Fold:
Amino acid sequence: MLSTFNRRHLLGIRELAADEITHLLDTAETFRDISKREIKKVPALRGRTVINLFFEPSTRTRTSFEIAAKRLSADAVNVSISTSSVSKGETLLDTARNLEAMSPDCIVIRHSMAGAPQHLARMCNSPIINAGDGSHEHPTQALLDALTIREFKGKIKGLKVAILGDILHSRVARSNVYLLTKLGATVSVSGPGTLVPPEFGELVDSGLQIEKRLEDAIDGADVVMILRIQRERQDAAFFPSMREYAVHYGLNSRHLERAAPDAIVMHPGPMNRGVEISSEVADGGRSLILDQVANGVAVRMAVLYLLAGGSHSEPEESEPQKKQKRERKVDKG
Ligand code: CP
Structure:
């Protein structure tokens, strides 16, 4: 089916080539159907162990990595940081090395410090998957966003994607800007001037536009992606008040009138309803927020499959896929 993915770790999107990203998305597509079956399990990673090491809260990412591992028949172990020896002062590296001594096939890490997964990748032997490091990158979120865009728009190349809100603190924004521009989309970012990272200026030649006005970023957009205000990462005042933020930067259905008529709305979650997004938009007909979550399982299955040792065999085909293949054979005579 697919060529192999030759990387040992998934640390970020920035270092990936466009064909590696496409390969990950194509692999995820082959897994999507498994979650719709009655028996949601294939033996692709039987006998493998995946450790989830989350130093920051998570609902979607941690759960979907666990579900993804289990759907591939791997054993998934979630380390609870609050009850682990981290609370006694054990370092990140010592924690990882001790877990590694128990022979996992892959470690998934989320940490508030940018660069923590890269540090472990240098110092440990296990494949490391970045599940979000500080404000740096969240590669599997960008992959699931791209999978969702491909599912509903049929392509990524040539689309206009508006990314709005707290760009500065968002690892989701960084990973998405890298991914979408590599795959040929035009990305317009907009938010309060204090929340747009200065280093994004360097990406203007690679398909990124920085718009002062939210409306200009949304004009004609095929995809409107709204980001959460990350209060936990703001140690200074970046805007006067949440109320003012909601008035000037909160996405409502009036804003969406400027987007393409068939524009889709995305948000990585968790949402601050009534702040960066109105409930009317979040729950409206264009919203794909829960489709993003569903695609997160397929993307994480693909990443685990490719990094934790499943890359030399194809995932088991679903019944509809087998039927389609049989029908094609009959057609060919
Ligand atoms: N989108 C995302 O990373 O959500 P969680 O923080 O719930 O994992």
Residues 58-61, 132, 141, 268-270 surround phosphoric acid mono(formamide)ester (CB under 6 Å).
